[in-house]
Amino acid sequence: MADKKTLAFEIGTEEIPAFDLKRATEQLAELMPAALDAVRIPHGDVAIYTTPRRLIAIVADVAASTEALEEVFRGPAAKIAFDADGNPTKAAIGFARGKGLDVDALERRDENGTEYVYATRQVAARDVAELLPEVLRGVIDAISWPKSCRWGTTSEMFSRPVRWMVALLGDRVIPVEYAGLVAGNTTRGHRFLAPGPHTVPAADDLVSVVEGAYVVPTQEGREAVIREGVARIEAETGYTAELPPKTLTEVINLSEYPTPMVGAFDEEFLKVPEEIIVDAMLMHQRYFPLYDEQGKLTNKFIIVSNGDPAHAATIVDGNERVVAARLYDAKFFYDEDLKKPLVDFVDRLDEVVFQEALGTMRDKTARVVKLSARITVAAGIEQEAMRDIARAAYLAKADLVTSAVIEFTSVQGIMGSYYATAAGEPERVARAIAEHYMPRFSGDAIPTDIIGQVVALSDKLDTICGLFAVGQAPTGSSDPFALRRAALGVLAILEETGLPISLVETIDGALIIYREAGLEFDNAKVRQEIIDFFITREKVALRDAGVKADTIDAVLACGIEEPVVLARRARALEAARSENPQVFDDLATAFARANNLREIGLGTGYKKAELTEVELSLAEAVAAVETAVAEALADDRYADALVALAGLRAPVDEFFDTTMVMDEDPEVRANRLKLLNRFANTFAHVADFSQMAKK
Question: For the DALR anticodon binding domain, which residue ranges apply (predicted)?
Answer without folding.
Answer: 607-685
